[in-house]
Design a protein that fits this description.
The chain is α/β, with parallel strands linked by helices and 449 residues long. It is built from 18 helices and twelve strands. α16 crosses α17. The chain binds NADPH dihydro-nicotinamide-adenine-dinucleotide phosphate (NDP) and (2Z)-2-iminopentanedioic acid. (2Z)-2-iminopentanedioic acid binds next to β3, α6 and α16.
């Protein structure tokens, strides 16, 4: 196994996030490989870590000043053993091939855990939507889709949103696909309700993460009632995580964006959350404005000279990292533990560095990795695909009930797999093993392809 990780590092030395994601999965599944000699004979690890297809393309577009801009587009089709490639698109200046590969790799196991028929993929661009006009975003999306449309389809590869891709971007992308293919199909998820979207899809990732957290606490005879919670991010996942925590009686104390964070000692209530939604989704403003609106809050800008993020230094019972990868490092994890944190539930993908994960596990914190805890988003995307295929829409309660059931079932599956392979209570081992085993069985059934 060490050889495989070395090979991956030597082959693509700059893909640090991908190495990190692979290392974690490979370490977790060692007991599975030890029990199944066939997996080694069939070179399963080599196959599962190599994308089935990688697309990279030029995305030229014209800005409002008439200047030509060129971005890079990506789609990594990682694994189709369980169904069509499925996973979001991320538009963010930091996007590169290593980040998209790590996200596509995680997506394979996450989608497997949902039990729906979805393979894993991820895409995106280093385009930064911040500060761009709606027209610029539309021209970019149209150019992006004018290449991507060749490679996707409702039974081939079904993209969705992620950082920087929300309802607006999905609309522009869908419009261009429809024009190019002359087809109205469920080729993207996260669509608006009026034209094929599913109720609860916008809420699903955040709600699902909180359902998962509630399940973890339940195993310890506890609940979210009166729990102080630190939430990072202020986008889709953070907003609906906050909404569900409030509904379940918890208190959210923080939110952030890439410029800084707010700490509101009185807690973020429904009215304040409505303000955040309007600020971030409609005005596309900055979280610093929250502290101008509500004097109970203090805004702290990002300080790049610090070796830690002060958001995680506040005393709280639960942490819900919901912004981006590697946002909790070892120093942050130690601060959280010293302050008595009981639960960390990852709304974001891989927000915790490996040394920080070790600190949580060593201290027996309830720690839920993203591929289990944030699977509610892609699960409801799967339900959107099902509704599109039937040309029907289910009521809100039906989708929410299915989401709850799926999160409960993922929670149980993680615990059972962890127990079966000698690591009881460890959700990292459980999620990786359960997700992996199902994909591997399908790969073996389907032969060497
Ligand atoms: P959004 O674009 O809606 O929000 C992202 C939030 O995180 C913003 O507040 C953004 O701040 C902040 N952020 C982004 N990059 C950074 C960074 N490098 N440093 C600090 N803050 C940052 O995205 P989502 O809420 O959809 O995604 C958040 C996380 O959840 C991601 O890790 C994503 O992969 C994951 N996820 C999303 C799912 C979904 O259904 N949307 C499903 C499962 C996981 P700013 O406004 O300054 O950019
Ligand atoms: O990381 C993720 O699971 C997502 N961004 C959602 C993917 C999807 O296809 O809904």
């Amino acid at each position: 196994m060490d050889t495989i990780i070395d090979e991956i590092r030597d082959r693509d030395p700059e893909q640090h996030e991908f190495h990190q994601a692979v290392q974690e999965v490979v370490e977790s599944v060692k007991p599975v490989l030890d029990r199944n000699i066939e997996y080694r004979q069939q070179a399963i690890l080599r196959r599962i870590t190599e994308p089935e297809r990688v697309l990279m393309f030029r995305v030229p577009w014209m800005d409002d000043d008439g200047q030509v801009q060129v971005n890079r587009g990506f789609r990594v089709e990682m694994n189709s053993a369980l169904g069509p490639y499925k996973g979001g698109l991320r538009f963010h200046a930091s996007v590169n091939l290593g980040i998209i590969k790590f996200l596509a790799f995680e997506q394979v196991f996450k989608n497997s855990l949902t039990t729906l028929s979805m393979g894993g993929g991820k895409g995106g661009s280093d385009f930064d939507p911040k500060g761009k006009s709606d027209n610029e975003v539309m021209r970019f999306c149209q150019s992006f889709m004018s290449e991507l449309y060749r490679h996707i389809g409702p039974n081939t590869d079904v993209p969705a949103g992620d950082i920087g891709v929300g309802a607006r971007e999905i609309g522009y992308l869908f419009g261009m696909y429809k024009r190019l293919k002359n087809e109205f199909t469920g080729v993207l998820t996260g669509k608006s309700l009026a034209w094929g979207g599913s109720l609860i899809r916008p809420e699903a990732t955040g709600y699902g993460a909180v359902y998962f957290a509630a399940e973890m606490l339940h195993t310890r005879g506890d609940s979210l009632e009166n729990k102080g919670c630190l939430v990072s991010g202020s986008g889709n996942v953070a907003q609906f995580t906050t909404e569900k925590i409030i509904q379940l009686g918890g208190r959210v104390l923080t939110l952030s964006d890439s410029s800084g964070y707010i700490f509101d000692e009185q807690g973020i209530d429904r009215k304040k959350l409505d303000y955040v939604k309007e600020l971030k989704n409609i005005r596309r403003g900055r979280i610093s404005e929250y502290a101008e609106q509500y004097p109970s809050a203090v805004y702290t800008p990002v300080n790049p000279t610090l070796d830690h993020n002060p958001l995680w230094g506040h005393k709280a019972d639960c942490g819900f990292p919901s912004a981006t990868q590697n946002e909790i490092n070892g120093v942050d994890a130690q601060h959280l533990v010293d302050n008595g944190v009981r639960l960390i539930c990852e709304g974001a993908n891989m927000p915790t560095t490996p040394d920080a994960v070790d600190i949580f596990l060593d201290h027996r914190i309830c720690y839920a990795p993203g591929k289990a805890a944030n699977a509610g988003g892609v699960a409801v995307s799967g339900l959107e695909m099902a509704q599109n295929s039937m040309r029907l829409s289910w009521p809100r309660k039906e989708v929410d009930d299915r989401l709850k059931q799926i999160m409960k079932s993922i929670h149980r599956t993680c615990l059972e797999a962890a127990e079966e392979y000698g690591n009881p209570g460890n959700y990292v081992a459980g999620a990786n093993i359960a997700g992996f085993v199902k994909v591997v069985h399908a790969m073996l059934d389907q032969g060497l392809v």
